[in-house]
Amino acid sequence: MSVRPHPRDDATPPPGTGGGLEGPLVDRYGRVHDDLRISVTDRCNLRCVYCMPEDDLTFLPRAELLTFEEIARLGRVARALGVTSVRLTGGEPLVRRHLVDLVAQLAAVGFDDLSLTTNATLLAPLARPLAEAGLTRVNVSCDSLVPERFAAIRRRGDLATVLAAMDAAEAAGLVPLKVNVVVLRGQNDDEVLDFARFARETGRVVRFIEFMPLDAGGHWERDRLVPGTEVHATIDARWPLVGIDGHGAAPAERFAFADGRGEVGFISSVTQPFCGTCNRLRLTADGAIRNCLFSDDELSVRDVMRAGGSDEAVADVLRAAVGAKHPGHAINEPGFLAPRRSMSMIGG
After folding, report:
1. How far apart are CA 144 and CA 191, in angstroms?
2. What is the pLDDT of residue 328?
3. What is residue 157's three-state secondary structure?
4. Residue 338: predicted pLDDT
5. Are 100 and 133 in contact (CB under 8 A)?
6. Mean pLDDT, 10 residues at a time, the chain of 348 residues
7. Angstrom distances, CA of residue 320 to CA of 220, 276, 290
8. CA 153, 159, 162, 167: dihedral to nearest 10 degrees?
9. Cα separation, 265 vs 251, whole angstroms
10. How far apart are CA 343 and CA 230, in angstroms?
11. Residue 204 region, left (φ>0) first, then alpha (ψ -120 to 50), else beta?
């Protein structure tokens, strides 16, 4: 396990293991962890400028990826420990063959919410099979409503395919459909009002996400980040916004248009961290449990399972990961170091 420098409170030792299959997963700061993000692959069919370099990529060998059966087993253990929400991520999850089969296995576990984050380039023909297998909703990444600019940011794919996939997802009942927009200074920040209008006209929830230091090329620069408060002010000046209470541990701060025509959200992980209410764990495609998107702390459940470990031993890994969680991600601290794994290797 690799640990980067991170401020923490060591007055109280992390909870020990040995709790067996009894929930919930509570860290020493009282945060209950009931949301699990599962990356099914580190591969992607796009090369977004804020995530992956255009070439010279090395992907995990297939043998190192968790099998669907291993993922489903981890899901069953997590459910016994109080996890109620699962989101499938990547890379791009839809490039993993037979993903519908995994959705069916996880749906049988009985999670309250089983969702998928996707770039939507492969979504349209799979939307209905995924829904029939038990997927409840999708989040679609879309960073521009201008075809040429979309192509420049994504470096592959096309806007028309993604927009058509949104329609297909809604027709299949994968709602509410959320649209994720990474706002980049000088690239798409002039489209904020266009996306707000898109939310008003379609009823889809557009969420504006700050550029985070998780790009594989390591080229993150703070001056390319557009603060969520700035995006909010731009929209509010044109269409007044009213805060929606009760978002709880969800990462997005939610706002409705005052005239009742839709909703937008702001995920301001850098400028307005929400670590104090974080309820998320992440499972990487190669079976590592990470308790924070921005930390290198991780524990392997794959190794435990492949060594013949019991479900209780798998549960102990989850408890240990939660017990070691820091109070915050420290992005804004002088000693912060970006994680060695990029977003595509961690899973969002």
Report:
1. 7
2. 64
3. coil
4. 53
5. yes
6. 35 46 88 96 87 75 96 98 96 96 98 97 98 98 96 91 98 98 94 98 96 61 85 98 78 94 92 80 94 83 98 97 80 53 60
7. 31, 19, 11
8. 140
9. 9
10. 24
11. beta
How many whole angstroms separate alpha carbon 63 and alpha carbon 45? Answer: 20
d(CA 148, CA 130): 30
pLDDT given for residue 247 in this prediction: 56
Facing residues of 257 across strands? 241
**How far lies 293's CA from each of 95, 161, 220, 256, in Å?**
22, 29, 15, 28
Cis, peptide link before residue 147, omega less than 30° from 0: no
Predicted pLDDT of residue 23: 74
Q: What is the pLDDT of residue 204?
A: 98
As a residue count, the chain comes to 348
**CATH of span 35-346:** 3.20.20.70
> What is the model's pLDDT at position 307?
98
Residue listed under structure tokens 């380039």: 121
Beta strands 113-118 and 298-300, pairing class: unpaired
Q: Return the structure tokens found at 105.
A: 């296995």
Which residues does 272 contact at the CB level (< 8 Å), separation at least 6? 228, 229, 253
Residue 115 near residue 86, CB atoms below 8 Å: yes
The secondary structure element, H or E, covering residue 344 is helix 343-346
CA distance 105 to 96: 15
Output the CA–CA distances (angstroms, integers) from residue 92 to 68, 74, 141, 204, 210, in the order listed: 16, 20, 10, 21, 20
Quote the CA–CA distance of 46 and 154 in Å, as a whole number.
Answer: 6
Residue with tokens 């599962």: 38
Q: Tokens 């993604």 appear where?
A: 162
